[in-house]
Amino acid sequence: MPQQPARGTRLFTVTADTLVAVDFGPRTKHRPPGPYGRLFARPGTRAFTLANLLARLPMGMFSVSAVVMIAGTRGSYALAGAVTATGLAATALVAPWTARLVDRYGQARVAVPATLVAALGSLALLLCVRYDAPAWTLFAAYAATATTPNTGGMSRARWAHLLDGDPDALHTANSFEQAADELCFMLGPVLAAFLCGAFFPEAGTLVGVVLLVTGVLAFAAQRSTEPPPSGRTTTGATTTTPPAPSPLRSPGMPPLLAVCLALGAVFGSTEVVTIAFADAQGHRTAAGVVLALQAGGSCAAGLLYGRVRFAGAAEDRYPWCVAAMTALLVLPLLAASLTGSLLLLSAALLVAGMATAPTMITNMTLVQRRTPDGRLNEGMTLAVTALLGGIACGSAAAGWTVEHLTPTAGYGVPVTAAAVALLVALAWPGVRTAAA
């Protein structure tokens, strides 16, 4: 039997009078690129994104590494939670000043020295734990990491600079950035828990320092996509225009930051409680995997959210996102209290994480709209600072609950924090008022 030609093949038959083309089917056509394909078709975007991902990965490693390292050597989750809370609180105070310098003098000039100082703080913490230094040295060393620049904010600032005037593309970029955050917080705890368990307790912190310094150096080297400093013109001359007002004075920003504070408490408490719960089950090294599932659900939801075009205002969606997050956080509490199964808890955290990315994407969209021109990195860093402050409070509250009650009871902390965020989003009109 003769073989049939493939579809899309054109054959020519010759008769005595004419030449006839026979078409065996449509040709394969190239599909147009999707929103993410169009996003990364822009020159320089892939380079700075890859470098920023490398710099951002340790953000999901440091706190888990510190908790495992300190709790494993000192035998106290309360001490571990207090140390990480102190470092995050210090970051909440220092980060806005670092971001202000980044906006005024440029990302490369400020981020590199700030990162080196933070790296020295992490190494000091490692040495204090390694050589059994007094407890107060742990607090001092971890507080020195407060100069860590907001790498995610700097990446978002580049997208805002490159996509000025294209809100749909900026929505896609913000969604990708939130998914990247979740990806780093998904892989970071797994990598940290593996390194600390498979090698030595300080391995997670050590590797995190190397990744952070390498990533920031590579990111700073991508100068073509860096937004111009607000303190200078594109030609390098000093500007004479007065600086834009502080983002804190922008209408609607304070209540939005209050919501971020409560959401941060959700993240911080969930992390500490999950580590303690897995440890109580005899599976400390599995804690990173469990936390990764929650971040994985958020990452998938974030990428899907970025492909959706919404007709309504982001201010109208925000309370619904927070409400969904609050409702889904009840699932881990039920799984831990009713079954005590680490497997079911993992599934519950996976589902609960699906509301995180849409909430944070909408949050960052509102922050960008309320931030004055020339202060974008500072505005986004204020949101991250509020999150870090909440993480510090949540970590401390969860550590106390785990120490004095039970790990299962600790899952009530993130539910309570999410409920507070929902109350603020509903009761404070500034959150739902569109920026002018």
UniProtKB/TrEMBL annotation:
Alphabetically list the UniProt keywords: Membrane, Transmembrane, Transmembrane helix
Q: Which InterPro entries match?
A: MFS, MFS_trans_sf
Q: Is Signal included in the keywords of this UniProt record? A: no
Feature: compositional bias, Low complexity: 231-241
Chain segments carrying region Disordered = 223-249
Signal peptide segment: none
- The identity of this protein, by name, is MFS transporter
